[in-house]
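Researcher: Here's the sequence for the chain we discussed earlier.
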Amino acid sequence: ANTITLTSGGTTYSVISANTTLNASQLNCLVDTTNGKITLKLPVPPTVFPGYSIIFADGGGNKDTNPAIIDGNGYPINGIQDQLQFNVTGSFFSMIYNGSTWRVVV
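Model: Thanks. This is the structure I predict for it:
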């Protein structure tokens, strides 16, 4: 499967290893690019609301060689219509939707 759901200590994680459009229930994403670059599209409002956040973490290494691309899916990231490249192995960050744009919090 391209997306696997794991639960540990009451927290649910989505392990994602292929191009995926996220849904509102995928709040903790372990992104695995071992087999190559992937694109993740953020959920589209109104299913997300101000204050909604998603955590992205390196779930397989290789981000420096095989980055993950985070696509705003029609909504801005940090105020601009662009994509975010997740290319630092071993890292994690959050994205919070403030009602008009996704903000990256490192």
